[in-house]
Amino acid sequence: MTYFIDRRPNAKHKSAVNRQRFLERYRKHIKRSVEEAVNRRSITDMERGEKISIPTKDISEPVFQHGPGGARQVVSPGNREYLAGDRIRRPPGQGGGGEGAGEGGASNQGEGADEFAFTLSREEFLEFVFDGLALPHLQRKPLKSLEEIKMVRAGLARDGVPSRISIGRSMREAYARRIAMRAPIKRALREALDALEAEERKDPVLRNPARINELKEEIARLEKRIEAIPFIDTYDLRYHQLSAQPQPSSQAVMFCVMDVSGSMTQNHKDIAKRFFLLLYLFLERHYEKVELVFVRHHTAAREVSEEEFFYSRETGGTIVSSALSLVNGIIEKRYPSAQWNLYVAQASDGDNWDDDSTTCRDLLVKKLMPHLQYFAYVEITPHEHQSLWHEYATVADAFAERFAMRQIVEAGDIYPVFRDLFKRRLSTP
């Protein structure tokens, strides 16, 4: 009989298996509650869990009962008020706002039941937040260094650790050695047996007892030599040899480009920061080999640290092409497209010098987009789109699969737009 023992650590009085089954069963309710939680709380507060409530009627279990069965004839007493087909009015004074007493809601004379509530852990909450999201068009690139390797078999060797011993090859080596070592001894033994048999066939008068004793001693000595040959020797052992083989790596770099010009109000900057914080949390959770490059720009662009990207107060005019040129220079210097998956996420209010918007389009079409896997542009404005949006629209037409544009009006649009931009897509061949 086979016994299966689940040794996964569970909290006290809880079962991990049953909890996962419960989360999967009520995934639709939980996902809706998670989306509402994301919209009403700060993105910087995303890493804590969430309390989820499910209506009691949605967790009721089906109940099977035996009916009376058979044919029955029942005579019901009549009355003076109602006839067949009359509609009976609902009795007054029962039920209140919300759920009725019969469904678990409280009435003015009885008791009710609250909705079923439970708490999602941090990991469970983030799993629902980022469910179905992935970096689009992630491709396998040649490895630029030997950081990612795979140990593969590279033949056999006489030295190694016991865990890598090749039993089959070792037994074949031992068998071959025994055959090679026994062959001359068996040949000599066969000759000695033939000589002994010939000597014993002679006439007793011509038989030589000394020769017979000598042959018997020789036969005994040869048999001992055969028995002394070991079944397996350390010389026979063979071990699997492993070698480090470089593997293709899913390396990616995400460029976070944010407009910090004077036209970007504090509310616009807060929305952009929350979008990038959500993006950063998403990348950090799902990908180990993703590097982030932060670029701020007004009339000039600079590569900055994460802290300066979110909290610096520097401002000025708007020249978006300065940021795109800087991104292109960083790619050429540090991130060759043959080795890296390149992604750009840009947040702006759409304000830009008219002449510069054309320059941005040319930079994207001629230099950036041929090397990028994906470009996501988020315009944070409640107003009509300006020249930058219209020039980017021509780029989106030319690179429909790898260029996406969305508009954010208020903070509540951040999460739906984010899910739309980074929903899981089929990779291009």
Describe the protein:
Helix 4 (167-201) packs antiparallel against helix 5, helix 8 packs parallel to helix 9 (354-368) and helix 9 runs parallel beside helix 10. The protein is flat and about 130 Å long. It is of the alpha/beta class. It has 11 helices and 10 strands. It has helices at 16-25, 27-40, 122-129, 167-201, 209-228, 266-286, 306-311, 320-334, 354-368, 387-398, 414-421, and strands at 50-54, 116-120, 149-157, 239-246, 252-259, 290-297, 301-304, 341-348, 374-380, 403-408. It starts with 15 loop residues before the first helix and ends in an 8-residue tail after the last helix. The longest helix is centred in the middle third of the chain and has 35 residues, at 167-201. The protein has 3 domains: 11-59 and 115-129, no CATH class; 162-242; 252-421, von Willebrand factor, type A domain (Rossmann fold), CATH 3.40.50.410. Strand 6 and strand 7 form a beta hairpin. A 6-stranded mixed sheet has the order 7-6-5-8-9-10, sandwiched between helices. A two-stranded antiparallel ribbon has the order 1-2. Residues 93-107 have a biased composition (Gly residues). Residues 84-111 are annotated as: Disordered. This is UPF0229 protein LLY24_09290. InterPro entries: UPF0229. Belongs to the UPF0229 family.
